[in-house]
Design a protein that fits this description.
419 residues, alpha/beta, Rossmann fold, 2 domains, five-stranded mixed β-sheet, 13 strands, 34% helix, elongated
């Protein structure tokens, strides 16, 4: 095995279990006596040469990361363009890697991060620099290709199903004299996986959620209103779960906040739940409440899925093993062997098969009327939210999350100007 350092970085929106992956990476590398550096705030830290020496973290701190939400080393939303368009940035990364003898690069993120890791590997090969790049899967959207599911999704899905179940009981208790319609917004720009997970909250046709709105289906407001009205008259109330990325027939987002873009170049969405709530009130006259869980759904480590935690740590260990074995431009993926009893294993897939690809909900997972999930979807989703892995609690009644002390290495290169 060649000598050198391993660089680990976190990217994009963090999850309840991305630190579990980080914990597994550090433990696996330490077992192999490989020094791990971490980029502060993802790829930005690598560009700025802000590298954290993780050898200063105690064993207890490393272990504690496994039950701590957020991103311990910081993350960022920075999408690097093509090798031609962002050549200077890629070459800067290579300069930093050379300066700190980085021979392995693990980038923990989603589609865009897989693409970055792939491009870095291509540039290193072009310059003849011995660097092994491995993508590490993470996203609550569950939209990465090849892998059966994505670490981070199971816990967000569990939070969604539990929250919708609990809110529905609240609405049911108050429906006669108060709220008749409740709208819950779930993350999911193009893929309705999280919204679908809400379907696990109920089983009978009268159980909430009564309506699920998927990005994969065109939103028809007139049909939606008729459905809401019919459910209120039949059940007494209606619980709606809407994915943030639902679109009209013309392709426009229902929740388009005015055409703004985020740092990844994606349309900035502006709250589909509040929009739908207003339209229901104006059209049907019902009293409506709505909720936007936003960061809550992806940071709720106290309600993490045990399956998700185990898978998050498994991909971290596998990423280290793949990197040290010289498997370049790959990503560890989760392969489902059986639904009941649920069984899975880790395999290795080329980044080229994952980068910039998106996995949406299969047609067979969405009910024929377009407003709910099928038995096949339940069979897929249920194991992913299975089991509990609560964090340790302190005397003050809140979880004992860890905030490790970080030591940043001294720069060896000129300060990055951002060009």
């Amino acid at each position: 095995m060649p000598t050198g350092n391993l660089l680990y970085a976190q990217s994009g929106g963090v999850t309840a279990v991305i630190n579990a992956t980080a914990s597994a990476v550090l433990q696996a590398a330490r077992a192999k006596k490989v020094r791990v550096l971490a980029a502060r705030n993802g790829i930005l830290g690598a560009l700025r040469e802000e590298l954290i020496d993780t050898t200063t973290l105690t064993a207890a701190e490393v272990k504690g990361l496994a039950h701590t939400p957020g991103g311990a080393f910081g993350s960022c939303r920075l999408k690097l363009k093509s090798l031609a368009d962002d050549r200077a940035k890629y070459e800067r990364l290579l300069e930093v890697f050379k300066a700190h003898d980085i021979r392995w690069f693990l980038y923990n993120g989603g589609n865009d991060s897989a693409d970055t890791a792939l491009k870095v590997s291509q540039l290193a090969e072009e310059f003849g620099y011995p660097l092994t790049c491995v993508g590490v899967p993470k996203t609550v959207d569950n939209d990465l290709a090849v892998t059966d599911c994505c670490p981070g999704f199971g816990s967000a899905a569990k939070f969604t199903a539990v929250s919708v179940r609990e809110c529905a009981l609240d609405v049911a208790a108050m429906a006669e004299t108060s709220t008749k319609v409740f709208v819950y917004e779930a993350m999911g720009r193009h893929a309705g996986w999280l919204a679908a997970a809400a379907g696990l909250a109920g089983e009978d046709k009268n159980d909430a959620p009564h309506i699920i709105l998927f990005p994969e289906r065109v939103f028809d407001e007139a049909d939606f209103m008729a459905k809401v009205d019919a459910i209120v008259k039949r059940v007494g109330y209606c619980v709606v779960v809407a994915s943030e990325g639902i679109r009209r027939a013309d392709g426009s987002f229902v929740a388009d906040a005015g055409g703004g873009k985020d740092s990844f170049g994606h349309t900035q969405l502006g709250g589909v739940a509040s929009h739908l709530a207003g339209r229901v009130k104006d059209t049907l006259g019902y009293k409506v409440h709505w909720a936007l869980p936003d960061y809550l759904q992806r940071s709720a480590r106290h309600l993490a899925s045990k399956t998700d935690v185990e898978q998050a740590m498994a991909v971290g260990r596998a990423a280290v093993e793949s990197a040290l074995a010289g498997q370049n431009a790959v990503m560890p993926v989760i392969v489902r062997d059986a639904d009941e009893p649920y069984h899975w294993h880790i395999d290795i897939a080329p980044l080229a098969h994952i980068a910039n690809r998106e996995k949406t909900m299969p047609k067979g997972f969405i009910r024929k009327d377009g407003y709910g999930i099928t038995i096949a979807a339940r069979r897929y989703l249920a194991p992913l939210i299975s089991g509990e892995a609560p964090p340790p609690y302190g005397r003050n009644g809140v979880p004992n999350y860890v905030t490790p002390t970080m030591r940043t290495l001294t720069r060896k290169l000129p300060k990055w100007t951002g060009k």
